[in-house]
Design brief:
- This protein is of the alpha/beta class and about 300 residues long.
- The protein is built from eleven helices and eight strands.
- It has an eight-stranded mixed beta sheet, with helices on both faces.
- Helix 3 packs parallel to helix 4.
- The longest helix is centred in the middle third of the chain and has 29 residues.
- The protein starts with 8 loop residues before the first strand and ends with a helix.
- Bound molecules: 1,4-dihydronicotinamide adenine dinucleotide.
- The site of 1,4-dihydronicotinamide adenine dinucleotide (NAI) has 32 residues, from helix 1 and helix 4.
Length: about 300
């Protein structure tokens, strides 16, 4: 089976560099028409060079179709206009890859609320704004593929990235509900947790590790997750030749009567509550209460 994107229209945010650029180039190589969005700017979001037009030109030079958009994912009016422009030019929008991102790493003690808010604004609100801009059209088309970008930091934590981790796991929560709402219109929403050598990680991982982890090692998972055959509500970790799936599980836990609903009982039973034997991956929010009431 070959995964093709002929006739598909894709928006890739933050596609001037790193992973977004690699996604955009491979989507185009496989037939998609691509909106290459990038605000430009340095790793922390301050002013810098904008490569969106360079990547769009690279696609066109290789015989593909692309347009550049240099607005911020945080700008609601501009993202609506970007979606309108893509629709006007190509008639539809099949794929949205929410990839744009910045870092403001600091221990929480040294972090300002402005640093926290800026990260939530770009990663979480940016993805919500871009998704909102295409959602109605995808519903009308009865087709859509949306990718969120989380991070091992969001899923598992990392010193100095409390702002980034909060925003990144927020995207998994966004996917979980959005994927349910999109189902009846064949809109599938998935999440990638990349690990790749980009300017974002150039001073975080050692050079010998980075050498094996080019953005192209994440592309296969990201493209599968926006393909026609994509699953719905899957979180795939990818990089350096490894592909894993991250699940949010619920342990079987314990059941107690009213007389034992005390903090002391929870403390005494903490190991039993935490035991992973028989744990499940709930397919929706109601599993928790159903399990508590022994209905599952
Ligand atoms: P990168 O810094 O090479 O690319 C990010 C791009 O987003 C840049 O071109 C930047 O100009 C653009 N951007 C930033 N703010 C924007 C805004 N407001 N509007 C539009 N574009 C904006 O970094 P990389 O590594 O390619 O990151 C891509 C995504 O993957 C990010 O969401 C990042 O958090 C995530 N990620 C990357 C990992 C890695 O190992 N490289 C690990 C986990 C997550």
């Amino acid at each position: 089976m070959t995964i093709g994107f002929e006739g598909r229209v894709a928006i890739v945010t933050g596609a001037g560099n790193g992973l977004g650029r690699a996604y955009a180039l491979e989507l185009a190589r496989r037939g998609a028409k691509v909106v290459v969005n990038d605000l430009g700017g340095a790793r922390d979001g301050s002013a810098g060079q904008n490569n969106a037009e360079i990547v769009a030109e690279e696609i066109r030079a290789a015989g593909g179709e692309a347009i550049a958009n240099i607005d911020s994912v945080t700008d609601e009016a501009a993202m609506n206009a970007m979606a309108e422009a893509a629709k006007a030019k190509w008639g539809r929008i099949d794929i949205l890859m929410n990839n744009a991102g910045i870092l403001r790493d600091k221990s929480f003690a040294k972090m300002t609320i402005a640093d926290f808010r800026q990260i939530v604004d770009v990663h979480l609100m940016g993805a919500a704004i871009c998704t909102k801009a295409v959602w109605e059209l995808m519903r009308d088309q009865n087709y859509g593929r949306i990718l969120m970008t989380t991070s091992a930091t969001g899923l598992y934590g990392n010193f100095g990235q409390s702002n980034y981790g909060a925003a990144k796991l927020g995207l998994v929560g966004f996917m979980n509900s959005l994927g349910i709402e999109g189902q009846k219109n064949d809109i599938r929403v998935n999440t990638i947790a990349p690990a790749a050598a980009t300017r974002m990680t150039e001073d975080i991982m050692p050079p010998e590790v980075l050498a094996k982890m080019g953005p192209e090692t994440v592309v296969p998972a990201a493209l599968y997750l926006v393909s026609e055959e994509a699953p719905n509500r899957a979180t795939i970790a990818a990089g350096g030749g490894g592909f894993e799936r991250a699940h949010i599980t619920l342990t079987r836990g314990i059941r107690v009567g009213a007389e034992d609903m005390t903090p002391e009982v929870v403390a005494a039973q903490f190991d039993g509550i935490s035991s992973r034997e028989g744990e499940v991956v709930p397919d929706g929010a109601f599993v928790q209460s159903a399990m508590a009431l022994d209905e599952l």
